[in-house]
Each structure stands twice: as structure tokens, then as C-alpha cells.
Amino acid sequence: MSERAEGRSTGQSTASKSERRLAAKLAAQKAAEAKRRRQSILGALAGLAVVAVIVAAFVVFGGGGDDEPAEQAGGTPSAGASSGAPDAPGAPAAPQLPEGADPALGSKPTVTKGSGKLTKLAVTPVIKGTGPATKAGQELTVNYVGVFYDSGEEFDASWKSGQPFTFQVGAGQVIPGWDQGLVGVNVGSRVQLDLPAELAYGASPPPGAPAGPLRFVVDVLAAK
């Protein structure tokens, strides 16, 4: 072989090796790019799967919170420290009466205005109960209606919410007329309490409290 032909052969061999290296490098780059694309797609799919799981969990476990109405708490009567709860929708349930009680205690009484000047506490039996007499320090459960003594206008009643009121009698948890007038009353009784202002909320009642002499009709349902 001549030197010129040998040179051409050597040059072609060197060029072929360079082309192969370049082709291998390009193939490796394409393979790496394809791998990165696959990883990106897989990562996006995984993210979508996580979001789908979170959404499904929220629908299954978080969607039932509004299905049940919130329970309404029973109100404290005006004879206590705050005003009564607003009227509950629908007709209130009849109260649970003590054994042997007059069925009339299952219905709200009609309370009329008083007459004459009220100067002291007056306790008038309306229905005589057959249960034990209440004692100071006991926890009483009662239903009540409260009206202004001079007009008969109702300002509060446990019958509005259908929830009787429970308190400790003689412990200062209610107005003085209740603490005094409800001790010694037999369980199952309905009594009328006529209270001068000083045994109700005083000459200067707190904001929102009824002023002046008051009349309550109270049903004593339990004492313990």
C-alpha cells in the first residue's frame, strides 16, 4: 500500500471513531432526557394521586359535619343571673312530671296581673304536690312563667325552650324571692310567687332585667 492510501485509511478510521463517540454521546443525552421526562411525568401523576386521596378523604370524613343541627343549650330563667333562651322551633316537649303529680303541670299556666300594692313576698299554692317538702341547699328542677305584676305582661318562661330550670335553692343562685318562696314547697306543686322589687331585681335592676314587682308561677318538678 502506498503512503497516500495508508494516510487516507488512517484518517477515515479516526473519523469513524469520532463519529461513533459523538453518536454514543448523543444517544446517552437522549436517554437521560427521556429518563428525566419519565420521572417528571411519574412525579406529576403521583402528585395528582395524593390530591385525589385528600379530596376523597375530605368528602368521606369531612362532609358530615353539617348534617346534624347543633344542640341548643337550655336557658337560665330571669329569676337567675341572665335572661332565658330564645324560643325553640316547634312545640316544646311536655315536661317529665314526678310520680303522682297533677297532669295540669304538663301544660303552661296562664298568669294574670296582680292587684293592689305589693309590699312583701306572697306565696300562693295553685296545685298542692304530694312529694317531700323542699329544703334549703337542695337542687330544684322547676318550670316557671314570669310576668310584670302590674300589667301581667310575660317577660320570661322556661316553657319557651321546653327545658326546665335547675338551681340550688337558698344559695343565692337566683333572686331572693325564689330563695325564700320555694323552700318548704312540696315536690309536684305549682305555686304563685308575688315579689316586691326588693326581692326581685331591686330598685335599680341590671341591664336587661325586669324592673318593679314581679309575679312568677313555678312548678316544682324535682328536689335532690
- Give me the count of strands: 6
Helix fraction by DSSP (H/I, runs of at least 4): 25-40%
Number of helices: 2
Which residues form runs of ≥5 with pLDDT under 50?
A: 7-11, 55-77, 80-89
Largest sheet: 6 strands, antiparallel
Large-scale geometry: rod-shaped
Average of pLDDT? 77
CATH top level class name of the largest domain: Alpha Beta
Domain count, please report it: 2
Please outline what is shown here.
The protein has 2 helices and 6 strands, in the order αββββαββ. It is an alpha+beta fold and 224 residues long. It has 2 domains: 1-65; 103-223, Chitinase A, domain 3 (Roll).
General description of the model:
- By secondary structure, the chain is α+β, with helices and mostly antiparallel strands.
- The chain folds into 2 domains: 1-65; 103-223, Chitinase A, domain 3 (Roll).
- It is built from 2 helices and 6 strands.
- It has helices at residues 3-62, 176-181; strands spanning 122-127, 139-148, 154-157, 165-168, 190-195, 214-223.
- Strands 1, 2, 3, 4, 5 and 6 form a 6-stranded antiparallel sheet that branches.
- The model is unreliable at 7-11, 55-77 and 80-89 (pLDDT under 50).
List keywords for this structure.
alpha+beta; 2 domains; Chitinase A, domain 3; 6 strands; 224 residues; 6-stranded antiparallel β-sheet
Strand and helix layout:
Blueprint: H1 3-62, E1 122-127, E2 139-148, E3 154-157, E4 165-168, H2 176-181, E5 190-195, E6 214-223
Antiparallel strand pairs: 1-5, 2-3, 2-4, 2-6, 5-6
